[in-house]
Amino acid sequence: MPNYDFDKVIDRSNNYSSKWDELGKMYGRDDLLPLWVADMDFMSPKPVIEAIEARAKQGIYGYTSRPESYFESVARWMKKRHDWDVKTDWMIFSPGVVPALSFIVNAFTHPGDKVLVQSPVYYPFFKVIEDNGRRVVNNPLLFKDGRYTMDFDDLEEKVKDPQVKLLFLCSPHNPVGRVWTEEELNKLGRICIDNNILIISDEIHQDILYPGVKHTPFASISKEFALNSITCTAPSKTFNLAGLQTSTIVIPNKIYYDIYKNFMTRIHLLRNNAFGLVALEAAYTYGEEWLDQFLEYLDGNLKTLSEGIEKDIPQIKITKPEGTYLVWMDCRELGLDTKGLNDFMINKARLALDDGYWFGTGGEGFQRINLACPRAYVNEALTRLKKAVG
Predict the structure, then answer these.
(1) Which of 184, 253, 265, 381 is in the most buried spot, having the most CB atoms within 10 Å?
(2) φ and ψ at 59, to 5 degrees?
(3) What is the C-alpha to C-alpha distance for residues 175 and 109, in angstroms, rounded to an integer?
């Protein structure tokens, strides 16, 4: 396998990239270093590129049919990387995790029902719930000594509401970077089962882990948990394939599987994109070496950012992630309100980051930065921050 050059800077501007080409629309100026959208500034694994090129050369891009090897590649990956025995007849296609969350909300709840989230959390969770006429119930995470934990006492109270039907679990958690322990997941799962709450586990970041950290798929803990959960996965974060719109939804409970499948049938959304089809299988079959090299590089990026912040910008504190390539930065010691912090990052530091308040309660005063980029970008971000702080 090749040695991948993650230091290589690739020009993504004017290339239909939301991360690079929507700066003016999102931030009001185009001269920012974009470290916001959660995709990578790296080329995908060579076998994935080759699979897509081979498919393109066929020259016919008609309706797709999934081979048995497609879901088998997902099952092998889950077993090897996460020790999770997943059956292929538990799996169903989705064009993405966020669309799947929307489908699930519509298929498993009624207008006016409530869905639990644990903020600060991936902000599309709120939109998926509210845009479909459901209501958000927040079980905020606890933040102490630079570490986030679940507030189980608060959760015990919130689940008593009979209108609460689902809980969106973000595992690993975006943006705070926690990789939940089996003990934490056991406690969460028990509370939800005892109160008839179905757990929807977004595990899209499951493969992005730092040294010594293990991800536990929620449904792998017990048969009881598997039957009370729907797991949303994808190769998109792992291998930088988000634009190919290919995800896998794992539903061990046959009743729930049929409910979801029937919904997908009603909206006639059952077939893959022709290129996403081959990309997923190639990534899960041949992409492991690339991923291992990327994770080593990512750990170096995190060390570069952490050491630079600690040395030169002590007003900002890093919430050290256990997973994801996203870092949650505590900027409250800068003494700025939400509008002031936004202006500081855009107009003084000239950085396009994700504002903490987007992620709901507990996000005020924080910023999320994406480290899936060449190290030159990390060093440039540090230079701009240091100069802006003065």
Answers:
(1) 381
(2) 75, 0
(3) 26
pLDDT tens for 289-303 read 999 999 999 999 999
Residue in the block written with tokens 């600690």: 310
Q: Is the four-CA dihedral 306, 311, 313, 316 of positive or negative sign?
A: positive
The DSSP annotation for 283-320 comes to HHHH-HHHHHHHHHHHHHHHHHHHHHHHHH-TTSEEE-
CATH class of 59-285: alpha beta
> Of the candidates 127, 215, 130, 116, which has an alpha carbon nearest to the alpha carbon of residue 169?
116
**Tens digit of each residue's pLDDT (9 = 90 or more) over 179-233:** 999 999 999 999 999 999 999 999 999 999 999 999 999 999 999 999 999 999 9
Architecture in CATH of 18-45+288-389: Alpha-Beta Complex (3.90)
**End-to-end Cα, the chain, rounded Å:** 45
Query: Which sign, positive or negative, has the C-alpha torsion 264, 268, 274, 275?
Result: negative
Look at strands 142-144 and 354-355 and give their pairing: unpaired
- What length does the chain have? 390
